[in-house]
Amino acid sequence: MRVILLERVGRHGGIGDECTVKPGYARNYLLPQGKALRATEANRKKFEAERTVIEKRNEERRSAAAGIAAGLNGHTVVMIRQAGENGQLYGSVSTRDISDALAADGYTVLKSQIDLANPIKTVGLHTVALNLHPEVEVSVLVNVSRSEDEAARQSKGEDMTVAGYQDEDEAPAPAAEDSAEAAEATDAEEPEA
User: Fold this and answer.
1) In which region does residue 126 sit, left (phi positive, over 0), alpha (psi from -120 to 50) or beta (all else)?
2) Domain spans of the chain?
3) Is the pTM of this model over 0.90?
């Protein structure tokens, strides 16, 4: 199906470009979202008559997105979640969680603007891309951890997913020497026959 793009759409083109897309993509996404018009003679004339208005509206949206992006690029969001010893989360961190955390920090980002292929299911630092506008993309760092202390340690570069991780407050595991002394002590307590 031939369409006229009203804004930049991925690899298909920019404002005013005519391109061929699959009919389902046009009917279910481009046309209802107002991102394109069917490529008919009447729509071509309509687009040319409104081209300056469309370009001005796109520029306003782009500048608004760039303003948000200036404060948001490189921003870190801390997500506290329950996880097992190996760093595997009991749940996951989705686009909704990231959007809510950014809203709590004062940024308005829609779930659809967060480019997360799969939900985050492990503890650690994860870079997530945000598509605020077709021409404006930034990334935020999502710090998924079990506690605030662990989040601070992760942000300094410490790996919390290492198996056998122990807090500094915990006593170290008994050394081999201690177990050898314990074995000698039990041998000494046994009566001789």
Assistant:
1) beta
2) 2-65, 73-155
3) no
Residue range 32-69, pLDDT digits in tens:
999 999 999 999 999 999 999 989 998 998 898 888 88
Q: Please, are residues 47 and 16 in contact by the beta-carbon 8 Å criterion?
A: yes
The domain defined by 73-155 folds into Ribosomal Protein L9; domain 2 (3.10.430)
127-133: list long-range contacts, CB under 8 Å, 24+ apart.
128/98, 130/69, 130/72, 132/65, 132/68, 132/69, 132/72, 133/61, 133/62, 133/65, 133/66
Q: For domain 2-65, give the CATH superfamily.
A: Ribosomal protein L9, N-terminal domain (3.40.5.10)
For residue 2, list its beta bridge partners. Answer: 20
**Helix, strand, coil percent content, the chain, rounded in steps of 5:** 40, 25, 35
